[in-house]
Amino acid sequence: MNADTVTAICAVVIAVASLIVSVYQTHAMREHNRHSVRPILQLHRGWPTGGRAGIRLINSGLGPAVIVESAITVDDEVIGAWNKLSADRVRDPLSIRPFAATFNHGEVIAIDHEQYLLSVASYDPQHHAEVKDLINRRLTLEIRYESLYGGEDYTVVLRPMH
Predict the structure, then answer these.
(1) What is d(CA 145, CA 109) in angstroms, rounded to the nearest whole number?
(2) What is the pLDDT of residues 70-114, one digit of tens each?
(3) pTM of the prediction?
(4) Domain boundaries, the chain
(5) FRET partner for 7 with CA separation of 20 to 30 A, picked from 22, 38, 39, 148?
(6) Whole-angstrom Cα distance, residue 84 to residue 63?
(7) pLDDT tens digit string along 152-162?
């Protein structure tokens, strides 16, 4: 083997190694970007006397959440996706009709978004006991969502308290 052959082989090895490092860095950068814009949806119950009370949806992540699917269940009966029709089915049997905010498939929940999904404006423990019982003991709400990149299949679930 002469010096030219050795030099050519070394150049090919260096080029291949450089390509591998470049591909790895690109993959790592994409993963980092995905994690840096990850949405984190949370569902909270709150019952402050005299204030807005009920189920609150919060996006506390660093990126917007895209709603993929939702499901509402009351007393183990599947009502459907969390849309106006299902919200009305949940609220209609109650003596006091709580406010409902719904969303559609594909809707984007912005960063720092905070909204009550099912609530009463001025909570009174005696007056709104039926609503509190529904939300705390009978209702399950599940929301599946993704980041703008898609394909992650994140889920947040509000389950009955026991």
Answers:
(1) 9
(2) 999 999 999 999 999 999 999 999 999 999 999 989 999 999 999
(3) 0.80
(4) 1-36, 39-158
(5) 22
(6) 26
(7) 899 999 999 97
